[in-house]
């Protein structure tokens, strides 16, 4: 069962499900500025280790939980709900 409050339209993400639901147990959203400067493995599991990251609009944010559905190996440690 997934959190019906988390929606995502990126249908090539490993966590995407029909109806634009996100099946990730945890997600990490940050500012583009931080997303552009952190390692691709930075995700929801490290969220407590990172400072707040303000953004001016939704256009300045990114989901760090994304992982391609067809990725050979998942190393993000996020579980499906």
Throw out a few tags for this protein.
81 residues, mainly beta, two-stranded antiparallel sheet, 7% helix, globular
Polypeptide structure, described:
This protein is mainly beta. Helix content is 7%, strand content 12%. It has one helix and four strands. The strands form two sheets. Strands 1-2 form a two-stranded antiparallel ribbon. A hairpin with a 3-residue loop joins strand 1 (16-17) and strand 2.
Please provide a brief summary of the model:
The protein has 81 residues and is mostly beta strands. Helices cover 7% and strands 12% of the residues.
SSE blueprint and pairings:
Layout: E1 16-17, E2 21-22, E3 29-31, H1 32-37, E4 61-63
Antiparallel strand pairs: 1-2, 3-4
Task: Name the poorly predicted regions.
Answer: none
Q: Structural class, from helix and strand content? A: mainly beta
**Helix amount:** under 10%
User: If strands are numbered along the chain, what order do they take across the biggest sheet?
Assistant: 1-2
Count of DSSP H/I helices = 1
| Structural Rg | 13 Å
SSE ordering: EEEHE
Percent strand equals 5-15%
